[in-house]
Amino acid sequence: MSTGVLQFVKGIDFSGNDFSGDRFPHDVEQMTQMTWLKLNDSKLEQVPDELSRCANLEHLQMAHNQLISVHGELSDLPRLRSVIVRDNNLKTAGIPTDIFRMKDLTIIDLSRNQLREVPTNLEYAKGSIVLNLSYNNIETIPNSVCANLIDLLFLDLSNNKLDMLPPQIRRLSMLQSLKLSNNPLNHFQLKQLPSMTSLSVLHMSNTNRTLDNIPPTLDDMHNLRDVDFSENNLPIVPEALFKLRNLRKLNLSGNKIEKLNMTEGEWENLETLNMSHNQLTVLPDCVVKLTRLTKLYAANNQLTFEGIPSGIGKLIQLTVLHLSYNKLELVPEGISRCVKLQKLKLDHNRLITLPEGIHLLPDLKVLDLHENENLVMPPKPNDARKKLAFYNIDFSLEHQRKIAGQMTSPSSSISSVHSGGARQDALARRKEFIRRRKQQADQQSADKVIQGMSKIAGVGAALTEKQQEEEERQLEAKSAVNWKKNIEKNRRHIDYSDIFDEDVGSDEGMWVWEIENFYPSIMDEAFHGQFYDADAYLVLKTTREASGQLRHAIFYWLGEHASLDKGMCSAVHAVGLRNHLNATCRTQREEMNDETEEFLTLFGEEIVYIEGGRTISGFYTTEKPAHLTRLYRAGVNGTAVEMEPVPLSVESLDPRFCFLLDAGETIWIWSGYKSRITVSNKARLFAERLNKRDRKGKSEIETCRQARCPPEFWQALTGNPDKPQGAIVEHVPEGFVAERKKLYKVNIGMGFLELPQVELPKGIAKQDMLGSKGVFVLDSNSDIFLWIGKKANRLLKMAGQKLVVELHQMIDRPDYAQVYRETEGEESMMFRSKFAGWDEIVPVDYTRTSDSVQRVPDLKVIVKKDNMMRADLAALFLERQPSMSYEESEELMEDCNYDLELMESFVLEGKKFVKLPQKEFGIFYTMDCYVFLCRYAVMPEEDEEGEDEHDEDDKPEMDFKCVVYFWQGRDASNMGWLNFTFQLQPNFEEIFKDKLEVVRMYQQQENHKFLSHFKRKFLIKRGRRGLTKNLGGKWPELFQMRANGSSVCNRTIQVDCQANQLCSAFCHMLRIPFKEIEEDGHRGVVYVWMGKDSDPREHEFARQVASDLVVRDDDNDFRIVEVQEGEENEEFWKVLGGKKKYETDSSFVKHTRLFRCTNEKGYFAISEKTVDFCQDDLDDDDIMILDNGDAVFLWIGARSSDIEAKLSYQAAQVYHASMRMKANEKPRKFMLAVRGRESCRFRKCFHAWSKMKEPMG
Questions:
Q1: Fewest CB atoms less than 10 Å from the CB: which of 708, 829, 965, 1086?
Q2: Taking the CA of residue 393 as centre, how many other CA atoms within 13 Å lie in the half-sphere pointing to its CB?
Q3: Residue 750's domain is classified under what CATH number?
Q4: Can you tell me whether residue 906 is helix, strand or coil?
Q5: What confidence score (pLDDT) does residue 1113 get?
Q6: CA distance 134 to 137
Q7: Do 1043 and 1136 belong to one domain?
Q8: How many domains in the chain?
Q9: Are residues 900 and 1009 in the same domain?
Q10: Rounded Cα gap, residues 924 and 908, in angstroms
Q11: Which of these three, 1099, 1115, 1144, is where a domain ends?
């Protein structure tokens, strides 16, 4: 359906569409008045034939396509002014020669093609002002080109293979921009340059320039503003450049300049100076005189602190400063006075610190300081403390120490911060004093003005009061008048002659009107008494009294189904009829089925009701269109949810994706069995917002998985409740990218329309691109939206409605593509999802507790509870938990075993628990589960009066209690626990009743009482007990004995049989079975390796563990050999894969600490794990901070939230700064530990580190 609007289109931007093959819209030939057309990045393979009918076309862009020829159609465009076909596959033969003879042709862009020579007849384009032939393979420029194109203003020949330029180039006296970069130009002396007096841009980067082929003087080139002589290996700055007074931009990077010999008064107007990649050691002091300089690049030189002018702070206009890859150890304090600085790069230097004022630069956005190993950042001033607030939490070290209740000493480094802050506070007080004085002066001036106005107002009020008293006296003197006469005199007479005839009510009779389109329409007498229930009527009955006067009765009748406008108009016109007749009667309301007797007598008590309505309403009636069921494929791009429309069929489903089926009353979320749960959850949230915004909450939201789809889903999708027979297969291509969105803006002028595109940076549309006074079209190929602003005029709206219809029809689209109309402020959820950040997200403070979220009338009440801004970081400032001494450990072990009467052990074999042999007591396997039944004596309670009053026979008997310890290996499944709860536990409960206690423990997380029963003989082997006993023992095994915090926690755990697993702080056992029995009958050997820093008191226990536990029950013929660190034999290292580097620094054992960061309590809190922590204490739901004495690691769990990660990062920095103060002699690095890729420095803090567990699901 044609709207007839195409003939008025003056220009349109079709860039970004897919016009490959025969997809170019044929309706373009109807745009006969079109003067400009953009077809950039449209996959064109040839010039469309339709362009030959656009005879008025003046500007044509076909860049970034696949054109190999532009013959034919371009020759049929006589008014062509600009041809832009850059970045194609054009060769010289593919360019028609006759287009250059067009007298109006002014812009020619053939850059980024495959031209080997200048196109034929180019010299005939004498009216050209722009010529771009860059990025081709052109080797020569004909003399005729420069001789004839004397009107050129812009000439770009860069990135070709030119070795020479014709001497006629001097004729281009009007040339303003000349770009020749990246050409050999070995034989071009640049002698013609001084004749180009209009030249303002000269780019000759990488053109083999030397001091000999650059003119010695450029005095006549007063307009030269942009010069690029980079990548030319120049030893010094050419002398001619210093005389360019109007120079704005100078690029001399990539040369061999050692010194910048500029003097004061030169380059006064310079704004950009690039001296990167040279050999500069000093920047001259006169650089600070370049007061207009905004960008200074001096990276990759040899600058030191002395080489930077101390007065650099005078460059107040400086926004960009690059000093990377130099030899800077310090930077001048003046840099902090460059108040407009936005980007500062100081990476790859030798910086030690920075000026304190660097934090006060208001506009600084980029500060690059990486690869400065010894850099110590200055503390931020107290004035900026509010900027440290992070999620309503102040993470400054001083504030957190104050909260933790620790006061800093005067000698600490914090005191220096205070002193600096005092200076800042003094300055702030001066500023505040000046501000108050100014405010006070303004207030005094305002008081004087108000006082003067009050006086004037007082005088005026007195005069007004006297005038009112005088008027009241005059009114009292006048006689009272009839109020009815005043009303009659002031009544506004309205002419009703256009509505009612003159003879209406002038004699006896009855008149009936029906309301039609807001006005009464007189009815024939034949229809009196017939009333439609959807209409309203006006009735006038006039009778003559005996005195001869006329008496009127006016009624208005409302049908049961009459529309609002008919009822209102009947009442209004009844009053108008009374005024028209100058009647004194009242208007009476009559309703269907409730008429008065007086009204019924008018029609002889015979009224006929007819269903329906005979007249039309004055309102426009619209019928809500039927809902169209649509299917969308959900995708996630960052935090945004993208809904891609797909055909409504089973074939569109893919098991790797989630889909949203919008069936109107029900919104279905379908998830394939390979889809991600996060995508499904976000699709569900999108459906919730869609239902709330577009459906007012009337739709139901249902979710279903691929394996279980209810019949209702198939009914909505296919119209049949039965599940389709065919399988759902993967069909969406890998790496599928939806077609790029295009945003058009509708422009209207005197008799023409334009449809340009709004530039979308990186293809991202934002809400602020829409304007209330405009009309926009968002085209996503499968859907097209017309957005109308509130302040758009009527003609613009009409033009947008017609253009969106034409745009929908002329471009090839899927059959399911739809057109939607959006109004500003009432946009649909689907339209909003096309724009980044356009969503109704309520900001939430995740650090608040449930109490603070309650609705409290006064916000101060919440703040007093200290919940809104609460963060518990006190654990970071506590001292490390001291290790238990050997004597204390012995005493604790004795106390824990004092009340033990009996201990029975069981192990899970198959699905049953069997009694564990006594010789295996203390041996555990990581894939098994064990049960230990312990009977403890309970001491009787003593009376307060003492025991003397009791006889020996009356002494209370000893009681007991039973504790069942369930031990689960790290690699064991939960089936063991289920078998225990259904088999053993019921039996134990039946026997011991209320004296039973069940304690479940995991590997390396046992309590002290349980460990005390094994008296340091606690061995954990890898694998399963039954399988290892039958098939194991035939290969070398390495065990590490380690006690964390207390010797009670002594465990011997099997580790990888490699040399790098050794540690000088602990004892190790290496079990080596021999392939053949030795002559002395030994079948193997167990080496007990004593680390040089291990506790000598642990050596005896290491020998016992080796002989009792490491040597298997059938390995009594293994000999035990003690080895001191450094005295190993060749056999020892050979079994471990050769001698390798292992951990010899044992100091980390005394400093290791592990902190847990979480907000599970409703606020952010940090707690410290016990010294006896293990690998499984790294919780995937939280963030951990590990300190090993040399580095502070931040470990991020796989399921932790972004909020926890950000807060933990700030807290780790607080801890790092705190430890720098406490232990300045042992500085720590701040590092990140990636889950699953932890470094050896991180892993050494955990006993027997192994592969990380993967979370279920």
A1: 708
A2: 27
A3: 3.40.20.10
A4: strand
A5: 56
A6: 9
A7: yes
A8: 7
A9: yes
A10: 12
A11: 1144
Q: Kindly state whether residues 675 and 603 are assigned to the same domain.
A: no
The two beta strands, 871-872 and 1164-1168, are parallel
> DSSP string of 1141-1187?
--B---GGGGT-EEEEEE-TTSSEEEEEPPSS--GGGS-TTSEEEEE
> What pLDDT, on the 0 to 100 scale, is given for residue 949?
47
Residue 849 has a pLDDT of 40
Last residue of a domain, one of 807, 834, 861: 834
Task: Give exposure, 100-129, as e/b (b: 16+ Cβ within 10 Å).
Answer: bebeebbbbbbbbbebeebbeebbbbeebb
Count of CB atoms within 10 A of residue 210's CB?
Answer: 11
Q: Which two tokens stand for residue 598?
A: 């007086």
Residue 439 is predicted with a pLDDT of 53
Q: Does 808 share its domain with 760?
A: yes
* Domain that includes residue 711, residue range: 630-718
pTM, to two decimals: 0.56
The secondary structure element, H or E, covering residue 887 is helix 886-898
Q: Decide: 734 and 657 in contact? Cβ < 8 Å.
A: no
Q: Indicate the residue type of 733.
A: P
R_g over Cα of the chain? 46
Structure tokens at 239: 């002398």
DSSP 205-256: TTS---SSSS-S--TT-TT--EEE--SS--SS--GGGGG-TT--EEE--SS-
Residues with Cβ within 8 Å of residue 251, at least 6 apart in sequence: 205, 227, 228, 229, 230, 272, 274
pLDDT of residue 922: 93
What is the greatest pairwise CA distance in the chain?
156
Phi-psi domain of 159 (left: phi exceeds 0; alpha: psi -120 through 50; beta: other): left
What does pLDDT average to in each consecutive run of 10 residues of the chain (1257 residues)?
Answer: 82 91 89 92 90 90 93 83 93 90 92 93 92 94 90 94 89 92 86 83 92 82 92 91 91 94 89 95 92 94 92 91 94 89 94 88 91 86 49 68 57 36 45 48 50 52 62 54 51 72 87 91 88 93 88 92 90 90 89 89 84 82 80 86 91 93 93 90 91 89 91 91 88 84 91 91 90 93 92 92 91 90 92 82 42 38 44 88 88 90 91 89 94 89 50 64 94 90 87 90 93 93 81 82 91 94 94 84 89 91 89 72 92 91 91 90 86 90 92 90 87 90 84 90 92 66
Q: At what angle do helices 975-982 and 984-992 cross, to 10 degrees?
A: 40
Six-digit token string for 1247? 């006993």
CA-to-CA dists, residue 354 to 369, 383, 397, 748, angstroms: 10, 18, 19, 56
pLDDT at 837: 83
For the four alpha carbons of 172, 173, 176 and 178, in that order, the dihedral sign comes to: positive
Q: What angle do CA 1071, 1076, 1081 make, to 5 degrees?
A: 80
Position 168 scores a pLDDT of: 87
Amino acid at the residue 944: E
**C-alpha distance from residue 437 to each of 172, 432, 448, 637 (Å):** 64, 9, 17, 54
For 947-986, what is the HEC assignment?
CCCCCCCCCCCCEEEEEEEEEECCCCCCHHHHHHHHCHHH
Pairing of strands 36-38, 775-779: unpaired
Segments in 811-885 forming alpha helices (H):
829-832, 850-853, 859-864
Q: What is the DSSP letter of 508?
A: S
Three-state secondary-structure class, residue 51: helix
- Residue 158: burial class (beta carbons within 10 Å; 0-12, 13-18, 19+): buried
